[in-house]
Amino acid sequence: MKEAFWGMMVLALSTVxxxxxxxxxxxxxxxxxxxxxxxxxxEAAMLDAVDMAYYNRTTLIRIDREVFVESFIxxxxxxxxxxxxxxxxxxxxxxxxxxxxxxxxxxxxGNVTGTFESFDIVNRLDAILETPY
Amino acid sequence: MDKSLKKITKYLLVAFIPLSIIxxxxxxxxxxxxxxxANTFRNTETELSLAAQxxxxxxxxxxxxxxxxxxxxxTWVKSHQGVRITLVDKTTGTRIKGTRxxxxxxxxxxxxxxxxxxxxxxxxxxxxxxxxxxPSLRSGYSVLKPIGSLPRLVSENKTDIGSINAYxxxxxxxxxGYPTNLLRLLRxxxxxxxxxxxxxxxxxxxxxSNPIGISGVKNLYQYLLYFYDNMSDYxxxxxxxxxxxxxxxxxxxxxFIVEPVVYFKARTGLLAPxxxxxxxxxxxxxxxxxxxxxxxxxxxxSHKDCLAGVCYSVTHTILPTSIYLDGSVQNIYFEGSRAxxxxxxxxxxxxxxxxxxxxxxxxxYLLYTDVVGTLNNSPGLGIGYFDLVAQIRARCQTDKCGDPxxxxxxxxxxxxxxxxxxxxxxxxxxGSTIAMSDDTNWNNVIGNSKLLDSSLGSLYKVTNWIxxxxxxxxxxxxxxxxxxxxxxxxxxxxxxxxxxxxxxGSSSYYYAGTHFTFxxxxxxxxxxCKTTIETDKWEKDYTETEKRLSIAKGSLARALxxxxxxxxxxxxSLDRYDSGSILSGSATLNGGTYCNLVQEPSTSFAASDTTAxxxxxxxxxxxxxxxxxxxxxxxxxxxxxxxLNQYKQVLSGSTCTNSKSRxxxxxxxxxxxVDDGFEWIxxxxxxxxxxxxxxxxxxxxxxxxxxxxxxxDQNREGSYYxxxxxxxxxxxxxxxxxxxxxxxxxxFDSGVLDDFIEYNRLDGRTSYVIxxxxxxxxxxxxxxxxxxxxxxxxxxxxxxxxxxxxxxLVDLKNELPRAVNWNVNTSSPSISVIHKQSITTSKDPxxxxxxxxxxxxxxxxxxxxxxxxxxxxxxxxxGNIKAITxxxxxYSSIYDSKNTNYKYSLPTNTNRYILKPSGxxxxxxxxxxxxxxxxxxxxxxxxxxxxxxxxxFGSGSITLEYTGIGQNNHLGRAxxxxxxxxxxxxKKIPDCVGDxxxxxxxxxxxVYRTIDLNNPFPFTDGTNRQPGYNWRAIPxxxxxxxxxxxxxxxxxxxxxxxxxSFDFTGANRLKLVEIRNYNKSYKFKNxxxxxxxKFGRECRSAFLSSNIFTNVIKGCGTVKDNFFACNKGV
Lengths: 133, 1130
Prior knowledge:
A: alpha+beta; three-stranded antiparallel sheet; 3 helices; B: disordered N terminus
């Protein structure tokens, strides 16, 4: 019996440990996914927003603000996890020279200890387009 | 699992098929290139392996001539012999350094055979002047076959050097798969400069161990090309620096030497020279290709018969000579027999020929046959190097042509070069009004009369009189551009052009995105026409015309005399014919045969002989007979005639109704039928009914036979002659008349002449037939001869000839001052340039190309016309037509030039607008762009260049083509092929407008970087690095935009309200699905039509304002009518 109890305890602890591992791994994965989604989407959207006409005229790189926002949202939606909640905030968009500050927040839900918990995953990215020297 | 496997298999198949196609296409592509390369070489090989079809019959015939000459046999028939062409400096008589001779031959056996031919290297006779102890033999021979057969270099009538001249200029050879003549061959092959990269002109060196082959030709071309590229001006000596390939003293001192090349096959026991059996090598059966000079060495004088046999058969005979095709023929002297050893300056040790032009004391001797250009020392009319270069000189000069990229060709001339400077003739008429005096024209003048060949007078005939074979002779051409050209003065015009083009590169370029001015493009065009009056021809023509006029006058006088005699005869009695001395002998004249009245007639008629009845002429009715004739009925009205050439006899007072054409009025004078020969009642084709009142009462032949005395008694006074023709006659009897006359009669076959008797006057005038029944078969009729006609035609022709010659003399007298006063037509048309220009731009991202035709602003600055005229006359009486024989030279030239500057600029509003967001350019705005404001107005024409290309230089974006230059496109190309094709580069730099413009753009090149707002541009050592150009072009940009963005420092920006905030939480997560659906309908890069800007700025997205984002989007950035509500500039 004694050995059996110990065995049950080991199984219980293992189950809890695995649940924690899965939970935090899920959070980590979501964070990582959000970051790369933010980074890649920002880059693609900035390139989409480059004003060719302005470059033809001045040789300078310029982006259109709302073209960037539109492209970002459309690209982000393509790869977002529909099971997550997202809040996307554009804190700064500078057209010339191009610079953006974007924040993506998502919530991760879990119930490991019997209590339903939510975790906010926040990723911020500041990016620019820079011409050679 | 099975489904998965099937799906995977399906995908693999789907991927495999296109990959396979791509792979196969790649293979095909590689294969195509391989085939192309192979074909390239194959063409060359084909050119070399064109097996000629040797005419066996000709060869056998030639060998038959060598029965006593065991040394060799003819390898090729004579028409297949070749020539060796050498470029020489005619001032020094030496080969141009760095060049080699080229062999041409009509025969072109297979490559292996060609390569087996032994030869002495590509030496010209110039290489042997100093003596060659023992010319070595070697193999590796190559020869080019022209498309057009080589002309004969030697002929019985001497060679027409002009034809050789034209041949070398115009005949083509197959080379590298396409036809080209020698000049173009040299040039076109050398266009591939990469082949010769780094190779100086040390290629040639005649007699070296390397066969010339194609590479030699290429190098020769390169040499010529070098001439051109460094030619500073027309006719000016080249200005070369010491580090250049060769030293060239003058461009136009060069000429071609053309040497005959013979081919023969050696037999065993070839006697001489010994080297043919050299060192144990028996060359029997081998084929040799040697120049005539070398052939002379092989066949010494002791075997000249062999050589003559061989070489006569192969056309060139022994020709230790060559043709300078520059007008200065080298004289070569021989003694009549074997030359002395000491006199031989050719091959050392050889006594076969003497080759010393300085030994002028010797009589020029022609060995075995005639030699071109050496018998009479007449200069050849050859082609000069000058002429050749003139064809290619109209080409961009290096220092005046745009040179955007060192490795990029600038202005390139069309491969085939400009077309020959042929006369342009369109309207109007010019040239001599006098017909050229050649045989044909003379015959045309005189007609086809046989008088020229008759004993009555043969006119003097001259061959090859006056005419020449000048190919650019403007005479006899309708050429408005050269004016009124006298046939005495052949006019030659030469057009030239020197061009300059805008220089591109570091000192001149175009900004992308802005306008440009493209000037000056300058053409200096000139036309030079010269003429030299051929006074010798004029003299010859004048003298000949005088001579012919004299002959014609004499002939005319004689014809008049004869004509008068004939007239007298016709009007006289028959006895006048007894004077047989007038017509001595028989003669054929105008189709008739005149009898020799003195000669006894032949009596050899056999009773059985039949012959076509000759014209029968018999004596006619005597007045007494006529009076007693019962066959005339007076007072009757008859209808005459009833058929062509039929007549009714009518008497005076009768009324004749003529219902036939060609009826003839017949006069009856006291019963004697008289034909005046001229009067016709009706002459025409229409049937007419004409009432005609005859002179005499009419009479109709009755059925009564005429009195037997009607005919056959020519001795009776007043008799006349009738003529019988047609039918078959047999000799009947011979009747001798006096001691001078012998007449014979014919018995007509039954049925012949039952109805007709043809009258024919002795003078041969129109015969006619009277309607009668006259059985002559038993009558004793006497036939004499047929009269052949009078001399009126002869008189007319000689009169015409006299008039022609007299007029020609007048014309010749007028022609000389006309020639002297010749001036080129300078009024119209003028020198011009035909050009086409295009600008091609690309408009990324749509990769659309289009052409623009820039506006042309041309200014013309003619230099006017400069004329020089030189008249040399060694007498003071040049104006005297008789003194013109002393006129030695008249020289006139005219030089017309024009400088034209062209200015190119873009048309107004060209690509003035840049459309957003694509960056595409437009010359006008459509309704959408006009209303949406999605464009940038540059405000002037825009030379658009793809943003991806906005860096450095590029070529080919601006192209100028010139299809015609010079008057009437003389220097242009046929079929519209551009003469010049000039590609200009563009420095692809946008015009700097506004702050921050990069004057030295790096192209559409930038990087995306995530940054730390506190240290956006870190360096590896922990310090800050210099930002990229767009972040430092405007001072304090980093501080204002990054470290102090939206009025707060660094990360504090995240404490501000977002400019845009999207909430996809809760139920709004479904908005993501809506956005995905939207994405399926609209491409990411296609924002056009979804953005509204204010002149390209403050752009708003219609997508963000759509219902998708209801309750999703918020923020200061969404405030309408205030793009800058977030305390944020652009």
